[in-house]
Amino acid sequence: MKKILVLICLSFMLTSAAFAASTRENLQARIDAAKVVLDQIMATPDKSIPMDIMERATCIGVIPGLKKGGFIWGGLYGQGVVTCRTGHGWSAPVFIREGGGSFGFQAGGQSVDLVLIAVNDRGFQDLLKAKFKIGAEAAASAGPVGRNTEASTDWKLSAELLTYSRSKGLLAGVNLNGAGVSQNAEDTEIYFGRPENFENILKGDVAVPEGAVEFVTSVAHYFIAAKNRQ
Q1: In what helix (H) or strand (E) does residue 190 lie, and over which residues does it extend?
Q2: Under a CB-based contact definition with an 8 Å cutoff, are residues 79 and 63 in contact?
Q3: Would you say 159 and 116 are in contact if contact means Cβ atoms under 8 Å apart?
Q4: Which of 195, 187, 227 is nearest to 25 (CA)?
Q5: Distance between CA atoms of residues 175 and 88, nearest Å
Q6: Is the dihedral of CA 125, 131, 137, 138 positive or negative?
Q7: Contact (Cβ atoms closer than 8 angstroms) between residue 180 and residue 100
Q8: Residue 33: beta bridge partners?
Q9: Cα 188 to the center of its chain, rounded Å
Q10: How far is the C-alpha of 177 from the C-alpha of 192, rounded, in Å?
């Protein structure tokens, strides 16, 4: 009985998170957390996102502390940020939501970090949509991990997005087919202080806010390092 009550509370928390009002302070904390997640992942080259994938990246999204849990049908919910490569660097970030079904998760709860990487223009176009479903509107593959990705070439042929999860410090490719990704226009407006079009932001037509400079600079650093590697 106690376990059932815990699971019901978890489901309620997931639902409540979806409708919680944001402030600029917690949006800034979300951007800061996204930078920390990416830096920690890339700090261990043999177990990080491969450099040849970083070199191909057209957009990088980070969803820190995504909540997942299960009670009968399960669920997951998280919020994060995305930046895209432009002709003059990387764009200011926009805010996104991700949510969906159980994906085979076991009953119980867990917090994970997710990374979404668009690896071509189709993946970039996916992120310009108000909402899309991974594996349906957007072809996705579990991303390979480590230095050598030559043994896993399927993503080069058909994937628009590569998906990763990090739990307890361990990074792995993850199948997120069925998860919905949607623009969070409300949070983006709160952070920028005015309504902004997602396409204009991700194409680099909107200046990077001061609070997002470190996150965008970090993404650019890994992209440049990948381009310049020997």
Answers
A1: helix 185-192
A2: yes
A3: no
A4: 187
A5: 32
A6: positive
A7: yes
A8: none
A9: 15
A10: 31
Per DSSP (E only), the strands in the chain are: 59-70, 75-86, 89-90, 94-100, 108-118, 131-133, 140-142, 161-167, 170-173, 180-183
The values of phi and psi at residue 184, to 5°, are: -110, 85
- Strand pairing category for 108-118 and 170-173: unpaired
Find the largest Cα–Cα distance for the chain.
59
Query: pLDDT tens across 27-59, in order?
Result: 999 999 999 999 999 998 788 999 999 999 999
CA-CA distance, 56 to 195, in Å (whole number)? 30
State how far the Cα of 131 lies from the Cα of 142, in Å rounded to an integer: 20
Tens of pLDDT, residue by residue over 112-157, are: 899 999 999 999 999 999 999 998 889 999 999 986 555 455 666 6
Which strand (E) or helix (H) includes residue 105? none
Give DSSP secondary structure letters for 207-228.
PPPGGGHHHHHHHHHHHHHHHH
Q: Give the pairing type, strands 161-167 and 108-118.
A: antiparallel
Collect all residues with Cβ–Cβ distance below 8 Å to 218 and sequence separation of at least 6.
Answer: 35, 38, 39
Residues near 83 by Cβ (< 8 Å), separated by ≥ 6? 59, 60, 61, 90, 91, 92, 93, 94, 202, 215, 216, 219
Share of the chain above pLDDT 70, in %: 77
Backbone angles phi, psi at 8, to 5 degrees: -65, -40
